[in-house]
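User: Please predict the structure of the protein below. I'd like the answer in structure-token form so I can feed it into my own downstream comparison script.

Assistant: Understood. Taking the following sequence of 567 residues as input:
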Amino acid sequence: LFNNHVRHGKTPPETRHSFSIPAEWILTLDPRVKQRIEAETTSEFADKCEIEKKKLDKKLKAQVKAGKMSEVECDARLAQHEDVWKNKTLNEIAKRIERAHLYSFNLPNYRSNLSKSQLEEWDEVFKDADRRNGSSLDDRFAELKDCPHEKALGTLALLNVQNTLEFDIARQYLMGFSLEELEKHDRLAELRKLVESGHIFPRSTLRDLIEPKTDRIKKDDFAGELDIVEKISFAEGEITFRKYPETGMDLLVAEKGDLITSKINLHQGAVAIAKRRFACSTHYQVYKINTTDAHPDYLFHVLRSQQFTELLNEQKNKGIKNEQGAKFLLGFEIPLPLPDTQIRIAKSLTNIAATIASCKVIDRTFQISFPIIDGVKCERLGNAVLETKNGWSPKCDGGDLPVLTLSCLKNGILDLSERKYTDATRKDIDKFFVQEGDFFFSRGNTPELVALAGLASGVSEDIIFPDLLTRVRFDEALILPEYAVVLFNSSLGRDYFGRVPLGASPSMVKVSQPYMEEFPVPLMRDLQQQNEIVAQCKEAVAGVSGLVAVLRHAQDAQKQIMVEIWR
């Protein structure tokens, strides 16, 4: 291929087993991703700018009042502040867009699944259209986004639907038409049919799959015979019931197998399947499922998928402020494979969800049970402390210098990928760089997580540790850093640091240095036994760390299945 074609600037011919794509396809970032980054970053930095502006305004007004500055100078400083933040915003947008590029070389991902005959049918629709194309994909997307239906053909003609990204942009636009609108535009209707034929699974409107239930129990007729829904969790779609079945409003009744959605938080995944009979307030909507066409578990997973919630949010962002009830929901379409395929997909997703939930529980609750050693005296930890150093938390508005987040402490190690970035500096910045083998503990956190500890390993760059992490250097003739990690993270440490006096905020507690130094340490100076205990605990800790990999694998598998369903 190289000698006969590439070296001569020729595109190799397609065969049954090989094809080529333009390099531009790999290098092009989805304009919708750029748009989202621009919107999110602008909003985030606007909030920060406003906070800083209020502080500056207060300071400058005090200087004006004291006669140290004129009103004109004050206004000029505030205008300068706005300009600085505009530039910061633009710089951060550029950085985030650059980081968002995914240069995948899995070439089939870049080609749409339209067949040769379908591509020919697409081209046939535009046989009379001017298809000259010198504009960028960003420009074509912007033009199409606000394009009236009457002029859409001219803009759609510029998209190359053999490219998966451009096909998806065309699909998103065409799928936004109602059936009534399509009846007015024959050629757009033809394109819509082609787009739908490009999906792995056919689409079906929810109106054909679920039916809203409207029968109510009047509040005066309710005698507390049914449990009442308190909430549906966003993360798992699990129902929590009220402690007492009392109500001040009419109730809907859900039977086993019904679909229940929150009218307020549907777009956040508040969807569940009823496992038994219960009642709910009218802030929820109950639906009877057409089980001939739709399997309840399949519906549950698809309606909670990222792809579907993005469709909901897109509608909400168009200005729809009312509750997300039946009128809002029933017009949406979802991919609907054959019933047997639905069952297979639902089973896989349910098993994956159970794996994810189990891994999260173990990761959240695991702690080392420290062995009870009779007759062993304890010494205060402070006897072995040589030096302590709290970190530094500069403002992280983007930059090149990484700063660890407080979530970096994981199962006795520092996860150096848990970071944000700053462009701040100081004269003594070297004192705040993480060094290989450093021992850290969180001096401030929730009561459950405060004083978790970990060691730094694999440090290959300058990275700052934050203010709420404390570095401790020990006399290693008295205590091994690895043993100190075991102690802090064990049942012994959790019990001791769990009794830290609460401060002003009960959700955030801080460990003072004197309190840390009073921690009673068994086996101080006995390095042999310390080593033995560390070795015993390593296997359990490694097992939990392995579960983190299992969790990531399950989450990736879940995402991949959903991508295939919605493709």
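That's the full token string. The chain is about 40% helix and 15% strand.
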